[in-house]
């Protein structure tokens, strides 16, 4: 499974407003690093982050383990759509 697909698979069940989900994947020229940027509604932010960031950290751990199998580094960034416009 590709990393962007895995990220969406892990994120979608946690959000209540899927229409607000914006997803962007960027990879460096060498193909050794992948940046996954996800915008979600402010109402879903707390649900996705979890207490002390535990849920999002668990998602990052799963993504990093999958990325290690492909010899790449993966970075997941979560923001609200309003932050992205700045």
Question: Can you lay out the helices and strands and say which pair or pack?
Answer:
Layout: H1 3-11, E1 22-27, E2 33-39, H2 42-49, H3 54-69, E3 73-79, H4 81-84
Properties at a glance:
86 residues; alpha+beta
Protein model, in words:
The chain is globular, with a radius of gyration of 13 Å. The longest helix has 16 residues, at 54-69. The N and C termini lie far apart (33 Å). The protein is α+β, with helices and mostly antiparallel strands. 43% of the residues lie in helices and 23% in strands. The protein is built from 4 helices and 3 strands; from the N terminus they run H-E-E-H-H-E-H. A 3-stranded mixed sheet has the order 1-2-3. The chain has a domain at 1-6 and 47-79.
Main beta sheet:
3 strands, mixed
- Strand count: 3
Class from helix and strand fractions: alpha+beta
Distance between the termini: 33 Å
Number of helical segments?
4
Using the alpha-carbon principal axes, give the shape. globular
Q: Roughly how many Å is the radius of gyration?
A: 13 Å
Mean pLDDT level: 88
Q: How large a portion of the residues is in β-strands, by DSSP E?
A: 15-25%
Instruction: Enumerate the strands of the largest sheet in spatial order, edge to edge or round the barrel.
Output: 1-2-3
Spell the H/E element sequence.
Answer: HEEHHEH
Low-confidence stretches: none
Task: Describe the structure concisely.
The protein has helices spanning 3-11, 42-49, 54-69, 81-84; strands at residues 22-27, 33-39, 73-79. With 86 residues, it is of the alpha+beta class. A 3-stranded mixed beta sheet has the order 1-2-3.
